[in-house]
Amino acid sequence: MISFQQVEKHYGEFHVLKNINLEISQGEVVVVIGPSGSGKSTLLRCINRLEAITSGQLTVNGVQVNDGKTDINKLRRNIGMVFQHFNLYPHMKVLDNITLAPMKVLGISKKEAEETAMYYLNKVGIADKADRHPSQLSGGQQQRVAIARGLAMKPQIMLFDEPTSALDPEMVGEVLDVMKTLAQEGMTMVVVTHEMGFAKEVSDRVVFMDKGQIMEVSPPEQFFSNPREERAQLFLNRVL
Ligand code: ADP
Ligand code: MG
């Protein structure tokens, strides 16, 4: 579903992604970990072309992400993204935050968009907050709204960039629970996180990055008990 082949990316002179090769199948949950600055966010952002690669091949469902002929909006419709800072529209009610894109981009009616929004708000456990504004919600609730907003576009892939890093510790679990449910329902997910418990319990594979390279790709049982790379071992010693 997602394929990186010999992908390189530079920011000006800075070589941020080096020879990235990675294949992600439908329904797979891949957790990306590694030190700050190792290129995790950049890797994720290349998938929906928030960043362009410098060379190599990157395809989503067989479509070349960086081909000038590719319809970027169509590509992005199929890929939901959840950020560390929830990026909700502060002046809009929760419900309107969720219905905006489906109405504007998919062209569905307000009634249908609201029904869909309520379905997903219910799914993330905050249907009672539909008429509130984001500032009236806790961080964990806001992040669940952001997830519902992504899901309302009915994407095939969900990308998460440190979705719990900005949350107070007591709210991390409620967001991870929603993500776990999504994973169990078969969503294809790429998750950058420092939550090693989530990686262990939910992921199919762990990708360890360092200095722009993928150093190791292993099933979580193997990665956490016996990482092949010394740098992965050192990283785990610091975070566990
Ligand atoms: P991570 O998410 O693993 O912390 P990032 O992908 O955000 O890493 O960043 C990797 C490196 O690229 C960092 O050194 C960062 O400073 C640099 N970088 C990120 N975005 C840009 C940008 N838009 N322009 C220049 N350098 C950037
Ligand atoms: Mg990052």
Automatic annotation (TrEMBL):
One Pfam family named in its UniProt record: ABC_tran
TM region(s), chain numbering: none
Record key words, sorted: ATP-binding, Nucleotide-binding, Transport
InterPro entries assigned to the protein according to its UniProt record, in alphabetical order: AAA+_ATPase, ABC_ATPase_HisP-typ, ABC_transporter-like_ATP-bd, ABC_transporter-like_CS, MetN_ABC_transporter-like, P-loop_NTPase
GO terms assigned for molecular function: ABC-type amino acid transporter activity; ATP binding; ATP hydrolysis activity
Domain ABC transporter: 2-236
Family: Belongs to the ABC transporter superfamily.
Name of the protein this chain belongs to: Amino acid ABC transporter ATP-binding protein
Native species: Paenibacillus thalictri
Lineage, top ranks: Bacteria, Bacillati, Bacillota, Bacilli, Bacillales
